[in-house]
Amino acid sequence: MPQTIDWSRELASLDGRLVAADQATIPATDEGLLRGDGVFEVVRVYRGRPFALADHLVRLEHSARNLRLGVPIDRLGLERRIAELLERRDPAGFDGALRIVVTRGGHEIVLTEPIEQHPPSIRLALVVYAPTRILDGVKSLSYAANMLAGRIARERGFDEALLVTPHGRILEAPTASFFWVDEQGLLCTPPLDDHILASITRDRLLRLFEVSERHCTRADLATAREAFLASTTREVQPVACVEEQRFAAPGPITREAQAKLTRLIADELAA
Ligand SMILES: Cc1ncc(COP(=O)(O)O)c(C=O)c1O
């Protein structure tokens, strides 16, 4: 179950003003709220240091441009406001996440959030989903379909959804990329031209491993040896099953991916 956030402890930067997160308000007329017309990012923060912040801000900028949001993304200003927010939230080093939101109404919101505790492995249900092509290259606020997919999976007794097109192509989870190990032992992940998100964690794993970017069908899944999800907040999360098909969780390559990603994160934060 998604955890309920105790917002009273969290802080927000709202249009550059620091406020308690549960006191941060924007007008109800903002189209970001009324139509999900806006962009966002979630950044992991380790002991006060945001991981891959530059990549997240570049993706935020691309999202805003592709969406024709009409609101400039002030990257340098955002970096400054994030540093101040993190220092105020916990001078000893905040461990958690940052949510950055820019709305069509022109509001910039940065929230600190506790990190959701993900279980050591996850059980996935296939949920049919057709990507909205017009939103390619946009991490938009319109996430209701992704959230619904997760609820449908949980209604069926699983933990999370694995999105599959009506034509049988396996894509990603609602908030994570999907990797599998094929029968030859090669690590594979669906290509970005399957209209999935250009995940920053996926990008890091592609730097660390030889990865085959190829379409994933149900037949590929049937012969897979291992599978895992990858995202900013999950890092590498072993998949215990997809529907009735079980995997070792973690299998050897998944374990290696966990270890290598942990090392890469530590190295980048230390640089
Ligand atoms: C649809 C989707 N795919 C993949 C991811 C993983 O992306 P990242 O590694 O940048 O967190 C996310 C993250 O929220 C997502 O929403």
UniProtKB/TrEMBL annotation:
InterPro entries from the entry? Aminotrans_IV (IPR001544), Aminotransferase-like (IPR036038), BCAT-like_C (IPR043132), BCAT-like_N (IPR043131), Class-IV_PLP-Dep_Aminotrnsfr (IPR050571)
Q: Does the keyword RNA-binding apply?
A: no
Q: Which UniProt keywords apply?
A: Aminotransferase, Transferase
| Origin: domain of life | Bacteria
| Pfam family of the protein (one) | Aminotran_4
The leader peptide range reads none
Q: Which GO terms describe its molecular function?
A: transaminase activity
What family does the Swiss-Prot or TrEMBL record give for this protein? Belongs to the class-IV pyridoxal-phosphate-dependent aminotransferase family.
Name by which UniProt lists this protein? Branched-chain amino acid aminotransferase
List the source organism.
Thermoleophilum album
